[in-house]
Amino acid sequence: MTQNLLYDQQGSIVTLTLNDPELRNAISGMEVIDALVAALDRINKDYEVRCVILTGAGSAFSSGGNVKDMKDRGGMFGGDVYGVRTELSTLLDMSASMQAIAHQSEDHMEAVNAFLEKRKPVFKGR
């Protein structure tokens, strides 16, 4: 992990902390995006993980993209269409990893079904 994304695992709980409070934890630089993709891949392969907390250091969770880069058409917001498309592809990979994590356990599906059916879930530790 980079210093812009902190990974902390305590038992079955992983906390990912966006750690760039000066830029309000923007998720638009390739360093932080690559770190998020790697962290999500690591989590997806670890069947002991039951919960992922995504938080931000400082006074803000995340501004989303770096607004200054958006204004200046810099970073992932600059360049030609091919470059922007490549950045978008990386973000879509990260989204796919998050979806895979969300559906990896039977207990997760039980929690969703119990919520929808307005009943208490019965977890089996899988």
Portion of residues in helices?
40-55%
What's the overall geometry?
A: elongated
Radius of gyration over C-alpha positions, nearest whole angstrom: 17 Å
Quaternary organisation: single chain
| CATH class call | Alpha Beta
Number of helices: 4
**Ranges with pLDDT <50 over ≥5 residues?**
none
- Number of discrete domains: 1
Main β-sheet, in a few words?
3 strands, mixed
DSSP summary, beta strand count: 3
Distance between the termini: 28 Å
Strand order of the largest sheet: 1-2-3
Please tell me the CATH architecture by its name.
Alpha-Beta Complex
Beta percentage is 5-15%
CATH topology: 2-enoyl-CoA Hydratase, Chain A, domain 1
* CATH homology superfamily name: 2-enoyl-CoA Hydratase, Chain A, domain 1
Which series of helices and strands comes N to C?
A: EEHEHHH
Label the structural class: alpha+beta
Mean pLDDT: 79
Can you put this structure into words, describing what you see?
With 126 residues, this protein is α+β, with helices and mostly antiparallel strands. The chain has a single domain, classed as 2-enoyl-CoA Hydratase, Chain A, domain 1. Helix content is 44%, strand content 14%. The chain has a three-stranded mixed beta sheet, covered by helices on one side. Strand 1 and strand 2 form a beta hairpin. The longest helix is centred in the last third of the chain and has 22 residues. The protein starts with a strand and ends in a 9-residue tail after the last helix.
